[in-house]
Structure formats: structure tokens, C-alpha cells
Amino acid sequence: MRRPDAVVVPESVLDEEGLAIDATQVLAVIEVVSPSNPNNDYGEKLAEYPAMGIPHSLIVDPRTGTIEAHSAPCGNRYSDKDPYIFGDTVPLGPWTVDTSALRRYGRDGDETSRA
């Protein structure tokens, strides 16, 4: 079981009983990379989400100001990866994500504080 930073599901899924959402109902996940544990987002989660059949994954990295849009799950990886930077309008399946308001960690790229 994983807890993404943000998840896209059909609204009807929210009416179901229980605390967890069936992964087959998840349309997309979004992860914001933690400065203390980036390998979790780029490694473990990026292998588990496609294995669960989640069609779209977005990794937002405030350490570097970069974004990766992943799609086309194939086993434990995504076949497609598209790079973006903060400020881009990022396609994520049938949606677009405006990243113009995203900010990097710290004022000068310092990972220990958030601006």
C-alpha cells in the first residue's frame, strides 16, 4: 500500500466504504520529492505504481525545479518519461498541470529549508 502526495480518481470512488482506494481505480498519482528521501520517489514508488497499473505518474522535484511525467505502465516501469521544468504546462493524461506557481526548496536551492 502506498500513499501518494496527490491522487486522481473518479469522484464515485470517494463514495466507497473503507480507508483505502483500489489501485485499479487510480488514474494518476503525483509525488513531491522529499529532500530527505528522494530515492523513495524515484526508485520504489516509480517501480510500484506501474506494477499496480496506475496509468500516469508525475514526480515534482523542488530540489532541482524539475518534473517527470511518466505513462504507459509496463511491468514495474513506465515506458514513457517526459521531462519538464517548473513553469511549464505539463500534460498528464487528459489533464494539464500548470506549474508556474511551484517553488523550489530554499531560496538558493538549500534543501534544508522551504521558501
From TrEMBL:
Keywords, sorted A to Z: Endonuclease, Hydrolase, Nuclease
GO molecular function terms listed in the Swiss-Prot or TrEMBL record: endonuclease activity
InterPro entries xref list: Nuclease_put_TT1808 (IPR012296), Restrct_endonuc-II-like (IPR011335), Uma2 (IPR008538)
SUPFAM superfamilies, per database record: Restriction endonuclease-like
Record bears the keyword Nuclease: yes
Positions of the Putative restriction endonuclease domain: 2-91
PANTHER family with a match to the protein in the record: SLL1072 PROTEIN, SLR1083 PROTEIN
This protein's name: Uma2 family endonuclease
